[in-house]
C-alpha cells in the first residue's frame, strides 16, 4: 500500500493556514492503490504531470514522434509552473551564436564546468546526455517562437559565454510558445488537475494515475478524484520542493519560512515524494541551492535577480563594513551564496552586501530601469553619495575601486581570480547603480534517480520502474552539490524529450 | 501498495555474484502489504529489527520498563551487526572519568562541537536529546558488564577529551554484554531472520512485519516468510547502507566497489529504503562519511583505524612528495578525509600519506603491536630509514619534525591550529612507528527523519507514522554533514532507549 490514506492527506506546507488545517479533519477513505478492480474513468497513452519546461518539451516531442493521446495535468490554475517565472536563461555548447561571436565551446567543456560545480558527485552521464542534445532543445523553443537577446551571457561557473536569454528575460518566453505549440499539436492541458498517486499492478508497474480535478491549490481534498489508465507511460515533470518549508527544513533546518524563495508557490514536491513511496531512490536531497543574485528588498525571483546575473561580470560585490570585495562575482552559485551569507554585523545579524555597477553598463539590460523604478536599486552620481547612503568607509571603497579598475586594465583579478573576459574595458566609474544581495532558496538539486533514458530506478531491484519516467527538477543526481545557472532549462527540456523518446522507443 | 513485489526482490548489491543473479528469475508472488485478511503466524508486543547498539539498548530498556513480549530480528547469522566491529568509542559529556581527570565539559559543549561538524544542517534538538541521556546509556553498558580503558581520548572535532573506549577497542565490548543482558531479561534474538516489509492498515499505521526465517545473507528468497502481528510498536534499528554499492554510488558516483569500506557486510540499508516506501522522509542521504583514520593496507575497519584514532593527537600526517604536514590531525572526519584524498602523485593517482608517531607513545595502546605484527605498520630506528622507505625528501621531513616539536613545546600549532593539549611533552623522536592513511566509507549520515521521541515522520502528513520507530544509523538529520567520532554509540543507544520509552509511554 503505497500512497496509503490518500484521501486523508493534508498539504504539509506551513503557512497554508485555515484551509489546510480544516482539511486535516476529513475522514479517511482508504483508497487502495493497486489497480486491481479499480474503476477506470478514462485512459490516455501518455500522461504528463506538470506543465513546465520538462512537461511541455515531453508533450511536443511525443506528438512529433506520432503519439496519439498525450495529455498534460497541471495542479495550478495557470500553465508553466516554476518554469514560467525564472530568468529564461538557456545554456548550450557550440551554438550558432557562439560561432558568430568566435567563441570556442564544446559538449566536453560544458560538462567539465558542471562537474566542477557538482563538487565530485554530479552524474556525468546525464550531464553529457543533456549537453549533447541541448541544441536540439534550443531549436525546439525557437521553432515554437521563443525569442532571445542577440548576445550571449557568461554566467557564474561557466568557462565561456554560452547562455541565451529570452527577450522578456523570463522563462515564460519559452513556456508560452511551447504551450501554444502543444495546443497546436492537439495536446490538452488540464489545469487545476492535481496528481494524487499512482495505480500499480501486482508487479509494481505503473498502470495509471489518480487525478484530482477541479482542485484549488492551498485547499485540500476539494474537487473529485478520477482514475486514469495510462497505456504507454507516465512522465513526472513536477519540479522541486523549494516552497515546501517542512521538506526543505528536513534537509536544512535553517531554511525556515523566514528565508526568501524565488519559486512559484506550487513547487511543493508531492510528485517527488510519491515516487519515493513507489520505491524511487532519493538522490542528493540535502543539496538545496540558494541564488546569490537575489535581493532582500523584494519578494520572489524579482527584478534584481536578472539584473545582477547580467551585471555580475562587470561589477563588484562589496562588504559594507570593510568597503572591500569578498568574492569572485562569477563563481558558482554555492560559492557565492556562502560568501554572501558570511556578511554579518558585529552581532552576527545579516548585513547584505551591495553590488556596484557603472550605470553606463547596467543600463544596457532592460532590468536596470526596473530595479530603479521599483525602488530595489539605487543610482548615485558619485562614490561619496554611494558610500554615505550605505555607511561604507569611503577611503577603503575608493581604494577597492582603483584596484579593481587595475584588474579591468590588465585582465587579471588578483583578489579573487574572476575571469575578466566580459569585463574588459568596462571600468567602474560614476554614475553608479547599486543593488543589495542576499541569497534566496532557488533550486533543489535532489530528486529521484533516473537513467539517461529518463527511467526512474527502483531502490530494491535497481531496474527501471515500468511505466514511469521523470524529467527536470523532480530528478536528482545530474547537478551534484551545485547546479550552474542556465543549465536547468536544457536539462528539463532534453530529459522531457528523452522521456517521450524512451516511451515511444524512438 | 508499498513493498510491491516483495517475493521478486533481488538483493541490489553489486558483487553478490551468481546467487543474487539466480534469484532474479524467481517468479513474483505479489504479496499485498495491507494487513487486511493477512494470516498472522504469531504476535509480539515490540519487534526490534537489528541487533546492534540501537536494537540491543531498545530491548534492554523495554524490559526494564516492564514490556512483556520483546523480540529482536537479525538478518545475519551473528548478533551485533556493524556495531560489533567498530572501535567501541563512546562520547559523553560531564562523565565521572572527566571529573576525575579535572576536565570541564557539558551537554552544551558536546552539542556545539557536533553542530560545528554538522556544518549548519545538524538537528540540534536530537543532538541535545542524545547528549542529555548519554550518561544513562553509558551506565547501561557498564551495568551490563562493558569494560573501558581507564583513560579518555580526545577525538577529532571534540573540544575536550570525552571519549571512552572498550578495553577490547571494539564495539563487541558493548554489544556482547548488552546481548547477554537481553538474554537474561528474556528477549529472544532471532538470527537469520530478515525483515521483508511492513504490514499496514488502511490508515497506513504499522500493524505487523514480515520476517523471512532461515535466511542466508547473500542468497535471496531463501527461507520462509512469516507474518508477525506487532501489538505496540516496531523499532527499526537496521543501520546504514555503506555496503550497498549501488545506493552509495547513487549519492556519490565515486564510491564504487573499489573504494574500501569499514562496515560489516550486512550494512545494505533495506530497512531504510522500506521506510521510504512507507512515506518516511529521506534526510541527508548525500552525506556519506569516510573515515580518515583507515589504512589502504588492510581490509575493513582493520587494526590501523583504532591505532591512528588513539595516536593522531600526538602524531603528524605527512605528504610523501613534500615531506610536510597537510592537515590538523584531529580536525573533524570530513575535513581530514578531504585533505587526505588530495594527496596525489603527478598523474593524479592516490598517494596515501603517512602518519608518524614516536614509538614510545604509540606502544601505550594495544593496537601498536598489532599493526606491526600484521605488516600494516612499520617501525624505523631513524628518520633516515623512514624517509628512504617512503621516498620522502629527508631534509624537508627533518625540518617539519623540528617545527612540529616546537609546537609541542609552545602548545600552539602554527601550521594547522591543532589543539595540542594531548600532545604536550610528547615530542616526535626516533624510533618511529608509521602507518599509511586513506579514507574508507564508514558511516551514512543520511536516513529517515525522526522526532526526539524516535518516531518516524510521514512526508505528506508531517505526523509520526503510527506503530513505527527508528534509532541509530538508519535515521538521518542528527549529524548533518559530518558525524564526530564516538558520537554514534551514544546516539544509537539513547535513541533505541527512547524508542522503547515512547512505545511504553514511560
TrEMBL record, chains A, B:
<protein>
    <submittedName>
        <fullName>Flavocytochrome c</fullName>
    </submittedName>
</protein>
<feature type="domain" description="FAD-dependent oxidoreductase 2 FAD-binding">
    <location>
        <begin position="45"/>
        <end position="489"/>
    </location>
</feature>
<dbReference type="InterPro" id="IPR050315">
    <property type="entry name" value="FAD-oxidoreductase_2"/>
</dbReference>
<dbReference type="InterPro" id="IPR006311">
    <property type="entry name" value="TAT_signal"/>
</dbReference>
<keyword id="KW-0285">Flavoprotein</keyword>
<dbReference type="InterPro" id="IPR010960">
    <property type="entry name" value="Flavocytochrome_c"/>
</dbReference>
<dbReference type="Pfam" id="PF00890">
    <property type="entry name" value="FAD_binding_2"/>
</dbReference>
<dbReference type="GO" id="GO:0010181">
    <property type="term" value="F:FMN binding"/>
</dbReference>
<dbReference type="GO" id="GO:0016491">
    <property type="term" value="F:oxidoreductase activity"/>
</dbReference>
<feature type="signal peptide">
    <location>
        <begin position="1"/>
        <end position="30"/>
    </location>
</feature>
<dbReference type="InterPro" id="IPR027477">
    <property type="entry name" value="Succ_DH/fumarate_Rdtase_cat_sf"/>
</dbReference>
<keyword id="KW-0560">Oxidoreductase</keyword>
<dbReference type="InterPro" id="IPR003953">
    <property type="entry name" value="FAD-dep_OxRdtase_2_FAD-bd"/>
</dbReference>
<keyword id="KW-0732">Signal</keyword>
<keyword id="KW-0274">FAD</keyword>
<comment type="similarity">
    <text>Belongs to the FAD-dependent oxidoreductase 2 family. FRD/SDH subfamily.</text>
</comment>
<dbReference type="InterPro" id="IPR036188">
    <property type="entry name" value="FAD/NAD-bd_sf"/>
</dbReference>
<dbReference type="InterPro" id="IPR019546">
    <property type="entry name" value="TAT_signal_bac_arc"/>
</dbReference>
